[in-house]
Write a structure and sequence with these properties.
alpha/beta, OB fold (Dihydrolipoamide Acetyltransferase, E2P), Rossmann fold, Ribonucleotide Reductase Protein R1, domain 1, 3 domains, six-stranded mixed beta sheet, 11 helices, binds guanosine-5'-diphosphate, binds zinc ion
Length: about 350
């Protein structure tokens, strides 16, 4: 198979193998560039095309995260004109989620197969260590590698102090300082944009993500990157392409859906995000120490003599509780759909028996 356009979008042997394992004759691979209310724009060998999931896919999906997201590799077949049907989503190497679709359990994936995530925050009044700590935990749990980008350095008088604070809450995470509006520091990001790597930007609205993306691309996406897309009623809406190819061959995702960090299941990210706290915790006398005053608690000792800020332990507790609550909610939602499925199956079996053996059949 010739995959020039796909290679430009990050296609590699890992994805090729996954595709070949499940695709049937005549099916095509593609990468999702835009998701807009359940319809998609997908990059394929034949160019960018509109697509939607098959009826069977919709019917069989048990959780929101099974639906395609920006960055996903999908298996498609052609239908009429330039619209394609998505039959399957290939396994993801990483995923970012936000709260679910409402009609379905599970979280909604807003970006998939991200290698590197730039956590963008402003060094102005927007600067907030606790929120950044959340983003870092979220990034670690996604499966992508985090890099912290402190933008708007021109509005900050003590950059070095801020950087030290950030290092304190994100041990081992690289930090870059920029003033994107003036192009200062942008070049420090370029080595991260490796060919075939997918890089996503996350951060609250207004921190400068679009400014950074435009500076990295060297063109104004709003003018050049627009893709026309038809919605369900046949109207044409204009949507900004959310996955872009840089000159160096990296794939850049700036997804508006990733701006919120409300809901998440960060269990897997906790260990990486709080490696500094855990490094002391392994020294506690009791292996199940809750660091609440037990004898021989190395964490409280480290806090007492200033080696560990108390805020870090508090954040670990708070985020750990939130994540656990989220996991419980998800589990409950999944059990509820399972129950509904079984009820439907039981009912149809019962109906079948009644038709066959009369009203008293059980
Ligand atoms: P986004 O919502 O994260 O995409 O943020 P934008 O890129 O739209 O930027 C929000 C505002 O911040 C715009 O008015 C930008 O001009 C401004 N901005 C972006 N980068 C900088 C910077 O480095 N310094 C200053 N002072 N303003 C910036
Ligand atoms: Zn302890």
């Amino acid at each position: 198979m010739i995959v020039e356009a796909l290679t430009r979008h990050g296609w590699d042997s890992r994805v090729a193998k996954q595709f070949e394992a499940i695709a049937t004759d005549g099916q095509q691979p593609g990468r999702v560039l835009i998701e807009h209310r359940g319809s998609y724009v997908v990059a394929t060998e034949a160019g960018d095309i509109s697509a939607s999931v098959s009826g069977r896919f919709r019917h069989e999906a048990a959780a929101a995260e099974e639906f395609p997201a920006v960055g996903d590799w999908v298996v498609m077949s052609e239908s009429h004109e330039k619209t394609a049907i998505i039959h399957a989503v290939l396994p993801r190497s990483s995923q970012f989620v936000r709260s679910g679709r409402g009609d379905m359990p599970g979280a909604q994936v807003v970006a998939a197969n991200v290698d590197l995530v730039l956590l963008v925050t402003g060094l102005d009044h927007d600067f907030n260590l606790r929120r950044l700590e959340r983003y870092v935990t979220l990034a670690w749990s996604s499966g992508a590698e985090p890099v912290i980008v402190l933008n708007k350095a021109d509005l900050c008088e003590d950059v070095a102090e801020r950087v030290a604070e950030v290092n304190g809450i994100a041990p081992g995470v690289p930090v870059r300082v920029l003033s994107a509006r003036d192009g200062v520091g942008i070049d420090s990001l370029r080595p991260l944009l490796e060919e075939g790597k997918t890089v996503a930007l996350i951060g609250s609205s207004g921190v400068g993500k679009s400014t950074i993306v435009n500076a990295l691309l060297g063109w104004e996406r709003q003018q050049i990157g627009e893709v026309r897309e038809s919605d369900q009623r046949g109207r044409h809406t204009t949507t900004v392409r959310e996955l872009m190819v840089t000159d160096s061959g990296a794939l850049l995702i700036d997804n508006p859906g990733m701006r919120s960090v409300g809901m998440w299941d960060a269990d897997e990210g906790m260990a990486d995000a709080f490696a500094d706290v855990d490094a002391f915790a392994v020294e506690c006398r009791f292996s199940d120490c809750a660091h609440e005053g037990e004898p021989g608690c190395a964490v409280l000792a480290a806090i007492a003599d200033g080696r560990l800020p108390l805020a870090r332990l508090e954040s670990q507790r708070k985020l750990g509780r939130e994540s656990a609550a989220q996991v419980r909610r998800q589990d409950a939602a999944l059990r509820a759909t399972e129950r509904k499925r079984w009820k439907t199956i039981h009912k149809s079996v019962r109906n079948h028996m009644r038709i066959k053996y009369g009203p008293d059949a059980r």
